[in-house]
Recover the amino acids of this structure.
């Protein structure tokens, strides 16, 4: 611990040195960096949007990558606060909320949520700081400038654990002009509410500040017949303060401190079939007086537990210091120091019934520290970036599984299984990236990164649990050295069009199994690193006068040792799939034929399958060896088709008032959630409809909007698995149904 604090102080001092040195010196250049962020937020729509996916500001049209951008204005207008709502705007992005974690899949590739120690294959960044725990996605989005979603391996540019892609959230920065916004909304279907706002402006000639806050309550949408409560309600709070210091031209430092809290009460676990076991029949008998029908997915459940109502609690503290210093001669130094602490606690009645069969409680505490320093320079038509990233994290996770046998379940599963897990990880990675315009319009890009990572872990199952689970105490250490690289060739044939082709690699380090009750028998407590190699070709077009935007990408990605985790009805089996291939097409477009009307959308065609994988036994198939050959089967969370289409009207009602209306249709194809190929864990294709109508007075700065999400009240789910102690039963986590919100906002 002492070493950890010494590292932290050293890094913080190191981050401050550029500011001190520059302030004492005579560096003179344009205003850039942290102050530049404010200017970037005013970018136009479509392919004119400014993004930083290549570590330098570029328009979306100029970036030779498959990048989707969702603006903060769009998020605010639709009342979007959960990260899983982003997938409707981004083709081939799947974000699912599972039991205490988020699972992110890009182009069908991701690690799943079965192993609590998994790091995601899609890296998640906020203001340049990597977050190693997907739990951080549970806190609500607040005062966001934009979200950039970069598809495909990004190991050389972004670094740690981005072998399937990266999500980068850029929060709104302090401004030199005074401005603010307040917004409040009431949700009618489940009786929820939300209030949020921000204030931004100068304090002195060189110091600006921004304060943001959000709070609210999302009403529960799962009616529990046993407790007569509306389960899975959510109370949330977010606070953020920022200071932007610009002591002289060409120098800036931005300090951000934020806190987020998210409390779910009750949960959204329900049945998708009960089977024919003795336990299943007992549950049917209990539910009969209520009308039955709990075996079919619905917004109704019947559950109670002596351990109390289910819940999920998350608290998140973040501190980020970003400095930018122009060193002269076209050379710029940027440092980003990040600190994050997450506390979480989740309780779930896994059998989803009033019977006392099995409950799951897990707690988590994670602290991380990161530092990035990079230097960028331009020499004629050559641009270079060189940098160094450091990352340290320590996690303490405890999972408790409480098996209680009322005389109708398996006698071997009685008692409490307590599984503590502790891990420390440390990595350092230098990187180099550059691009050169070799001919007018023809540019080559290249990047390379070396990563050196060490992990140490202790995995335990305490004595005194069920006789089927042997106690163990295992310690492990991993040291890995990985290289990632990428190359691109792009040709800009005019100011409104570009074609590109790229090859990129990405990697994710191996790790340890955090919550396997069978480690005492199998001894398989580690999994190997995974690696991606991907080809991509793309076309980007913008019509004259902004008539249309069109982005097309085709890709082929090969994965070695994809990290996977499948539930077999008792515990999660974690390991590596030998070979995986993901290939497909992504198309995004917007058409603005007249000033008051626009249409658009996106579509993704995906073929993501195992090429070689000895995995869990296939449902209802002979399995004498204890595994099945899953070669040729589709990956989990990898629907073949996903698409979104919208139409929007913006027209004046009078000299002062503006009317706008938008309708959007979202389609997701058949999605499998377990490698066992059990039909009950396969979610049928579904369609949802969202809409917004609003009246705005720009002169006075107010607007009133009515927002509807999932207006058809379609049932879908984010996870499915076989239920322990109920043979043949399947549990699913139900997504929210219809919501209708009246939102009032005022800008000043």
């Amino acid at each position: 611990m002492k070493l950890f604090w010494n590292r932290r102080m050293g890094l913080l001092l190191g981050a401050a040195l550029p500011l001190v040195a520059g302030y004492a010196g005579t560096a003179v250049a344009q205003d850039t960096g942290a102050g530049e962020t404010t200017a970037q937020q005013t970018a136009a729509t479509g392919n004119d949007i400014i993004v930083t996916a290549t570590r330098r500001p570029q328009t979306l049209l100029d970036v030779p990558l498959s990048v989707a951008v969702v603006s903060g204005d769009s998020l605010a207008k639709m009342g979007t606060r959960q990260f899983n709502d982003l997938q409707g705007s981004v083709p081939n992005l799947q974000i699912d909320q599972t039991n205490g974690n988020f699972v992110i899949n890009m182009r069908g590739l991701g690690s799943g949520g079965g192993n609590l120690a998994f790091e995601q294959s899609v890296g998640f960044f906020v203001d340049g700081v990597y977050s190693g725990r997907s739990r951080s996605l549970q806190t609500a989005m607040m005062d966001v400038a934009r979200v950039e979603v970069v598809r495909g391996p990004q190991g050389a540019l972004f670094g740690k654990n981005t072998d399937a892609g990266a999500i980068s959230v850029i929060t709104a920065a302090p401004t030199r002009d005074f401005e603010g916004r307040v917004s409040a909304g009431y949700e009618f279907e489940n009786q929820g509410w939300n209030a949020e706002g921000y204030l931004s402006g100068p304090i002195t000639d060189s110091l600006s500040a921004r304060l943001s806050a959000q709070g609210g309550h999302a009403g529960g949408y799962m009616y529990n017949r046993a407790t007569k409560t509306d389960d899975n309600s959510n109370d949330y709070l977010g606070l953020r303060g920022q200071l932007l210091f610009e002591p002289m031209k060409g120098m800036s430092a931005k300090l951000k401190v934020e806190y987020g809290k998210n409390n779910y009460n009750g949960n959204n676990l329900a049945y998708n079939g009960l089977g024919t076991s003795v336990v299943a029949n007992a549950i049917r008998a209990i539910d009969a007086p209520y009308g039955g029908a709990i075996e079919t997915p619905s917004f109704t459940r019947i559950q109670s537990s002596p351990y109390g109502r289910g819940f999920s609690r998350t608290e998140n503290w973040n501190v980020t210091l970003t400095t930018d210093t122009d060193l002269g001669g076209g050379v710029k130094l940027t440092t980003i120091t990040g600190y994050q602490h997450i506390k979480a606690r989740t309780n779930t009645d896994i059998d989803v019934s009033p019977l006392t069969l099995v409950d799951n409680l897990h707690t988590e505490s994670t602290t991380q520290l990161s530092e990035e320093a990079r230097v960028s320079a331009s020499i004629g038509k050559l641009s270079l970036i060189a940098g160094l990233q450091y990352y340290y994290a320590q996690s303490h996770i405890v999972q408790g599984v409480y098996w209680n046998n009322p005389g109708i379940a398996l006698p071997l599963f009685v008692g409490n299984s307590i599984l503590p897990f502790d891990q420390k990880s440390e990595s350092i990675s230098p990187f180099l990236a550059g691009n050169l315009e070799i001919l007018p319009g023809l540019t080559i890009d290249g990047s390379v990164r070396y990563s050196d990572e060490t992990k140490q872990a202790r995995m335990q199952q305490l004595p005194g649990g069920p006789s089927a689970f042997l106690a163990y105490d295992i310690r492990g250490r991993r040291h890995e050295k990985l290289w990632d690289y990428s190359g691109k060739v792009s040709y800009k044939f005019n100011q409104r069009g570009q074609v590109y082709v790229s090859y990129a690699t990405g990697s994710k380090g191996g790790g340890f199994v955090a919550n396997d009750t069978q480690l005492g028998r199998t001894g398989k407590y580690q999994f190997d690193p995974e690696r991606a190699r991907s080809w991509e070709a793309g076309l980007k077009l913008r019509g004259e006068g902004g008539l249309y935007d069109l982005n097309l990408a085709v890709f082929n990605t090969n994965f070695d040792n994809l990290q996977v985790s499948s539930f077999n009805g008792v515990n999660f089996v974690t390991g590596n799939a030998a070979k995986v291939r993901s290939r497909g097409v992504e198309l995004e477009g917007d058409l603005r034929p007249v000033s008051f009307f626009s249409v658009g959308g996106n579509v993704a065609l995906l073929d993501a399958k195992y090429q070689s994988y000895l995995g869990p036994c296939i449902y209802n198939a002979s399995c004498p060896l204890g595994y099945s050959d899953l070669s040729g089967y589709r990956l989990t969370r990898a629907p073949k088709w996903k698409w979104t289409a919208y139409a929007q009207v913006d027209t004046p009602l009078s000299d002062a008032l503006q009317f706008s209306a938008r309708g959007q249709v979202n389609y997701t194809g058949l999605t499998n959630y377990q490698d066992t190929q059990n039909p009950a864990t396969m979610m049928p294709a579904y369609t949802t409809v969202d809409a917004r109508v609003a009246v705005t007075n720009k002169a006075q700065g107010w607007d009133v909007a009515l927002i509807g999400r999932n207006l058809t009240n379609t049932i879908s789910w984010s996870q499915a698995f076989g239920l322990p102690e109920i043979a043949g039963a399947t549990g699913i986590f139900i997504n929210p149904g219809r919501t209708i919100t009246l939102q009032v906002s005022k800008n000043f």
Remarks:
- Helices lie at 2-24, 36-40, 72-77, 155-158, 278-287, 519-522.
- Confidence is low (pLDDT under 50) at residues 1-44.
